Amino acid sequence: MTTGSTITPEMTIDEVIQKHPKAQTVFTRYGVDTCCGGFRQLKDGVKVSGANLEQVLAELNAL
Fold it and tell me: What is the 3-state secondary structure (H, E, C) of 1-63?
C-alpha cells in the first residue's frame, strides 16, 4: 500500500487522514468528501471532486 509514509493514489481517504490528520485541510480545500466518501481510494475521491490528482498528492506528501 505505502512506501514508508508516502501517500499513494490507492490509499483510502480515511487511511490518509489517520496517518496524517493535517490532510483534512488539503481535502477541504479541494472539496474531497472525507465523510461519506472516506472509504474511496484517494484517486477516486479526488476524481469525484474534480481536483487534479497530482496536485493533491503533491500537497499531501509535503505535509
Answer: CCCCCCCCCCCEHHHHHHHCCCHHHHHHHHCCCCCCCCCCEHHHHHHHHCCCHHHHHHHHHCC
Backbone angles phi, psi at 8, to 5 degrees: -115, 160
* Percent of the chain's residues with pLDDT above 90: 86
* Mean pLDDT of the residues in the chain: 92
pTM to 2 decimals? 0.87
Q: Is 17 exposed, middle or buried (0-12, 13-18, 19+ CB in 10 A)?
A: middle
Distance CA 33, CA 46 (A): 8
